[in-house]
Amino acid sequence: SILMHRRLFLYNFRNLRKAKGRRETYLCYVVKRRDSATSCSLDFGYLRNQMGCHVEVLFLRYIAAWDLDPGRCYRITWFTSWSPCYDCAQHIANFLRSYPNLTLRIFMARLYFCEDRKAEPEGLRRLHKAGAQIAIMTFKDYFYCWNTFVENREQTFKGWEGLHENSVHLARKLRRILLPLYEVDDLRDAFKILGL
């Protein structure tokens, strides 16, 4: 099926602060071609990571095979259950540099951190610097995904307890990650002066 089962979506995209047992990454995507003021939808669907290959790399291989017209502009939107790991962020940043006519927006349900807690934030910063627009999913994004990618049997999306609070918490965390390092140092200095 081109649509994701409801339970699969709700389990994997739930924006829990500690999402134990959720080892797979799911990626819902929309590819559009921009023609002046209008856009034309070319494809949509979802992918999940496969043995030995992260879902972000799978998508990049998929879209690279399209042989995109360099004279046209394309916009890709992802909704992912986890933010990209450091290596995937590097692959995506390199891909974006190779395709200046392509824009990428990534909405993430949760932030992924491996054992080296400094690597993934650095990867997200590099990805952002390469031009990717990255944000945490909000209720509006979940609603859109529910109506676009989920076999919902015409049921209305109902958020879970803590959805909004967790989105706000994760958005603040992401905002701190994306702050230029000199601003982070300025904040640390300000907190020291205040005795905090």
From TrEMBL:
<dbReference type="GO" id="GO:0070383">
    <property type="term" value="P:DNA cytosine deamination"/>
</dbReference>
<dbReference type="InterPro" id="IPR050610">
    <property type="entry name" value="APOBEC_Cyt_Deaminase"/>
</dbReference>
<dbReference type="GO" id="GO:0051607">
    <property type="term" value="P:defense response to virus"/>
</dbReference>
<dbReference type="GO" id="GO:0000932">
    <property type="term" value="C:P-body"/>
</dbReference>
<dbReference type="GO" id="GO:0004126">
    <property type="term" value="F:cytidine deaminase activity"/>
</dbReference>
<protein>
    <recommendedName>
        <fullName>Single-stranded DNA cytosine deaminase</fullName>
        <ecNumber>3.5.4.38</ecNumber>
    </recommendedName>
</protein>
<dbReference type="InterPro" id="IPR002125">
    <property type="entry name" value="CMP_dCMP_dom"/>
</dbReference>
<keyword id="KW-0507">mRNA processing</keyword>
<comment type="similarity">
    <text>Belongs to the cytidine and deoxycytidylate deaminase family.</text>
</comment>
<dbReference type="GO" id="GO:0005634">
    <property type="term" value="C:nucleus"/>
</dbReference>
<keyword id="KW-0862">Zinc</keyword>
<dbReference type="GO" id="GO:0008270">
    <property type="term" value="F:zinc ion binding"/>
</dbReference>
<keyword id="KW-0832">Ubl conjugation</keyword>
<dbReference type="GO" id="GO:0016445">
    <property type="term" value="P:somatic diversification of immunoglobulins"/>
</dbReference>
<feature type="domain" description="CMP/dCMP-type deaminase">
    <location>
        <begin position="21"/>
        <end position="127"/>
    </location>
</feature>
<dbReference type="GO" id="GO:0006397">
    <property type="term" value="P:mRNA processing"/>
</dbReference>
<dbReference type="InterPro" id="IPR016192">
    <property type="entry name" value="APOBEC/CMP_deaminase_Zn-bd"/>
</dbReference>
<dbReference type="InterPro" id="IPR016193">
    <property type="entry name" value="Cytidine_deaminase-like"/>
</dbReference>
<keyword id="KW-0597">Phosphoprotein</keyword>
<dbReference type="GO" id="GO:0003723">
    <property type="term" value="F:RNA binding"/>
</dbReference>
<dbReference type="Pfam" id="PF18778">
    <property type="entry name" value="NAD1"/>
</dbReference>
<dbReference type="GO" id="GO:0016554">
    <property type="term" value="P:cytidine to uridine editing"/>
</dbReference>
<comment type="function">
    <text>Single-stranded DNA-specific cytidine deaminase. Involved in somatic hypermutation (SHM), gene conversion, and class-switch recombination (CSR) in B-lymphocytes by deaminating C to U during transcription of Ig-variable (V) and Ig-switch (S) region DNA. Required for several crucial steps of B-cell terminal differentiation necessary for efficient antibody responses. May also play a role in the epigenetic regulation of gene expression by participating in DNA demethylation.</text>
</comment>
<keyword id="KW-0479">Metal-binding</keyword>
<keyword id="KW-0539">Nucleus</keyword>
<dbReference type="GO" id="GO:0045869">
    <property type="term" value="P:negative regulation of single stranded viral RNA replication via double stranded DNA intermediate"/>
</dbReference>
<keyword id="KW-0378">Hydrolase</keyword>
<keyword id="KW-0963">Cytoplasm</keyword>
